[in-house]
């Protein structure tokens, strides 16, 4: 029988590592570039594993349909690198220089909006999840494909107990 924590881990096989929730998201960097992450939220941290480089608009209607499933944004060869790695470990950060670990204690706010981003073109997405850090930085994670942003927000707020729901 699968416990609730294992059931919610859809995108990375964490080999029994408890996770609160995981989701696929894109993040902009350097103004016009982007990259996608599998974001794994544990009881201690928000961890991001780079899964895919630049995400572009699908060229066909079949591509749009296929990309509604967020798992289609995962590079399978990249995924293999993470299969036995604890997302809270130093080894996780060494797999790719853009991987990240954010302590839940440093998160002050979490908010979700289902508003679509014009800049995403034809890339199917479910809105944006914002994470406000204690140092003032804010990260925006655009949920790729069809994902339940309100539920992800709820589960993240439960894991990051120092965070409050923020308006977006």
Summarize the model shown.
With 168 residues, the chain is α+β, with helices and mostly antiparallel strands. The chain has helices at 4-8, 61-66, 76-82, 90-95, 149-159; strands at residues 21-29, 33-41, 45-52, 100-103, 107-113, 125-133, 138-144, 164-165.
Q: What does this 3D model show about the protein?
A:
This protein has 168 residues and is α+β, with helices and mostly antiparallel strands. It has one domain. Helix content is 21%, strand content 33%. It has five helices and eight strands, in the order αβββαααββββαβ. The protein has helices spanning 4-8, 61-66, 76-82, 90-95, 149-159; strands at 21-29, 33-41, 45-52, 100-103, 107-113, 125-133, 138-144, 164-165. An eight-stranded mixed β-sheet has the order 4-3-2-1-7-6-5-8. It is globular and about 35 Å long.
Structural class: alpha+beta
Give the N-to-C terminal Cα separation: 38 Å
- Quaternary structure: single chain
Number of helices: 5
- What Rg do the Cα atoms give? 15 Å
String of helices and strands? HEEEHHHEEEEHE
- Poorly predicted residue ranges: 1-16
Sheet with most strands: strand arrangement = 4-3-2-1-7-6-5-8
**Number of DSSP-assigned strands:** 8
Apparent shape: globular
Sheet having the most strands:
8 strands, mixed
